[in-house]
Design a protein that fits this description.
Helix content: over 70%
Strand order of the largest sheet: 1-2
Order of helices and strands: HHHHEEHHHHHHH
Radius of gyration: 19 Å
Largest sheet: 2 strands, antiparallel
Distance between the termini: 55 Å
Shape: globular
Number of helices: 11
């Protein structure tokens, strides 16, 4: 293995890790604050890709505006889904089973709606202007769009951390995750907080889908693969832990990138092997999950 090969695979792994983190962070946010396991989170990733495709191909917006459209569209639909459906099952003793059935039904419904509107054929989205080529760094050549995704991912990590730890809405969200009943008694509108958190989390999924669209085909069912990998990321990092999701995405992204290049015939099972090893030696994940009290 020469330096060029290692560098290219590291960048490829970081690109994959960034996309996985954007999806997994939304999944983690929903679970950490609302104690909700959103099995349909990958469907919002898929919706983001389709919204970006429509914005570029039909509305003729630029790519970066299309990403904003994708995030807002996925976030709005996610907030509506929480308001109309998930809110009705909070606090029930059998809530976990209802969550799985309800969010799984979202997958089936969203997939069928996508097929009705856009058909089953694959769609494609070109890379944004100025990011279609490559750039040379220290004598090594990297795709400019991959580097852009990595930079965007770092910015999202920093902004998310600042919002969650340094702002009042972030502190309210974290406190709601720990004790909804006390926050409600203090005058916090817990249902509205849950809706906003769900909307922001699904917006992150749509944002990731739009970013990934130029690298992958836009097709029905695209959310299934990404939700599986994102669940593995969340399990590795620890359910409901933001920094655990970041570390889990880095580990899984790099492992998968090198596996595809070195042992492609085993690449599809490597992620599961990593998850099994983590579960054997640290069942709670690399970062301990937060304990959540519900009303």
């Amino acid at each position: 293995m020469d330096l060029s090969f290692l560098a290219v695979q590291v960048v490829s792994g970081l690109t994959m890790a960034t996309l996985l983190f954007l999806v997994a962070s939304g999944l983690t946010l929903i679970f950490g604050v609302g104690n909700v396991f959103n099995f349909a989170h990958g469907s919002f990733y898929m919706l983001g890709a389709y919204f970006a495709y429509v914005a570029v191909s039909t509305w003729h917006t630029n790519f970066w505006m299309a990403i904003l459209v994708a995030a807002l569209g996925a976030g709005f639909i996610g907030a509506i889904a929480e308001f109309l459906f998930l809110r009705r099952i909070y606090g029930r003793s059998e809530e976990g089973g209802f969550q799985i059935l309800l969010t799984y039904s979202f997958i089936l419904i969203i997939d069928d709606v996508v097929k009705i509107i856009w058909g089953t054929e694959y769609k494609s989205l070109s890379r944004p202007f100025g990011f279609q080529g490559s750039v040379e760094v220290f004598g090594l050549t990297f795709p400019t769009y991959n580097l852009a995704i990595i930079v965007i991912g770092v910015l999202v990590v920093v902004v998310s951390w600042v919002i969650l730890s340094r702002t009042r809405p972030g502190r309210v969200a974290r406190a709601t995750a720990l004790d909804r009943e006390t926050m409600a008694a203090m005058g916090v509108n817990v249902p509205l907080t849950m809706t906003l958190v769900f909307g922001i989390a699904t917006a992150l999924g749509g944002f990731a889908g739009a970013l990934a669209a130029p690298l992958r085909s836009v097709t029905p069912g695209a959310g299934i693969e990404v939700i599986i990998d994102s669940l593995i990321v969340v399990v590795i990092g620890g359910m409901g832990n933001f920094w655990g999701a970041w570390l889990g995405a880095l580990i899984l992204g790099e492992v998968m990138a090198f596996a595809v290049a070195i042992v492609p015939e085993w690449a599809s099972v490597v992620s599961y092997v990593v998850m099994v090893l983590v579960l054997i030696f640290k069942p709670e994940g690399l970062f301990a999950p937060r304990q959540v009290r519900t009303v």
